[in-house]
Structure formats: structure tokens, C-alpha cells
Amino acid sequence: MGNHHGHQSTKSESSSAASSHNGSKKNSISRTVSGNDIQEKPSLMLPVEKLAKILEDKSHKQEGVNHGITMQVFIANLFSRYPVFGEKLFNYLHQSSKTKHSYIPTNAFKQQCENYLAIIDDDAVRQRLVKMWAHPSEETSADSLTPEDVTSLLMCTYQISMDHYSEGPQMCLSVHKTLNAVVDSCFHGKKVLSAQYVTHWVEANIPRLLFPLHRFAIHALATAWRTLEEDEPSPAVGKNVFEKIFLNLF
Q: How far apart are CA 58 and CA 224, in angstroms?
């Protein structure tokens, strides 16, 4: 019995040592990952910092705004070819920043850009884009969309998608007929729908159709500063990169 007890004790000590070693190893791995995250964070923020600085300077020179970014400067330098989308995105960032100014304060702009760049979930992407085109309902005050709103949203994603084919810009002669059919299928004769309903409908029927808008916005916010630093027209930024991005959608 004494030998048996000694064997159990030795086995227990061995198991305890192994457990302690594994625990130490896990803690070590956890600390390493956390350290890497901290080290990588500044490099991820660099594009936003540079973009905010450039747009802040332009807003000051062109519109006399101190420490902020105006809608006109934002659209002209990032979305001059797609002003409707530029306005919707700016208003979304402006609303999210909760500022009382007509412009977005620079620090708030950086924070909202970082938040937008962090959106990777497909459902969140669709929800944000639908929200950009939504407005409070007169009856319920809830975010709602009209057929015209959804048509505008779909037209924006169509234009961006068709403009960035590897073979060059494309055009569909029946685009208006197609978009009207899609919108009619969504609304079924109703004059207004909640943003929540439209988001669910998009997810169920055209789940990937809005992604070009989001990818275009991500690319512009993350890379446009390079071209703006050189004072080149921003629409030409990363054309080859755009082509690769949009080819993956089809």
C-alpha cells in the first residue's frame, strides 16, 4: 500500500507540474498576442492620421474651418466621382460623431474613420449602408426608406461596380428597368419601409450587392492620403487595386 501511495503521489506531482507548465505556456502565448496587437495598432492608425491632417488643412485653407473636416472637402477629395455616396458617408460619420458643428472635428473624424474601417461583419456592412440612406419616418420617427432612397442606394453600388471592371468601365442599357424591378420586389407597392426591414430584405435577396460600396469607402479612407500628399486627383487612387477588389465580387 505504501508503494501504491507513493506512485499516486509521484503521478499527482507529475500531473501538477505538467498542468503548471501548460498554464504557463498559455499565459505566455496570451501575453505575446496582446503585445503584438499593441505593436501593430499604431501602423493601422497611420493612414487615418495622415488623411485627417490633409483634409483638415484643406478645410482650413478652402473654407476657413479650424480643426475640422467639411463635407465639401471630404467629397471633393475622396468621392468626386460619386458625390451622392460621399455625402451619405460624410453624414453618417457626422451623425455618429454627435458633433453640433456643420463640419466634423478632426479628432472625431479620426475616431469615426477608425470605427468604420473596423467593420468587417457582412451583416454590419449591410446595416450601415442602409442606414446611410435612411431618414426618420414622419409617423414613427424610426429610420425608414422610400423606393427612391433604395433606388439611389442601388444606383450608387451599380455605378461603382461597373466603373471598376478590369476590361474598363461597363454599362447596362437596362439598368433602370432592373433596379425598378428590384425595388418593386422589396416594397410591394408600399411608400415607405423601415430600415430594419430593408436590411433584412437585402440580406435575404441580394446579400452581396452592396459590398462594392463598402470596399470602395474602405479603400478611399485607407489609401487616398498617398495621392493627396502628391496633389494628384483622388479618383485615380489605386485603380489597379480597385479592379482586383471588385473582380472578387463576381
A: 14
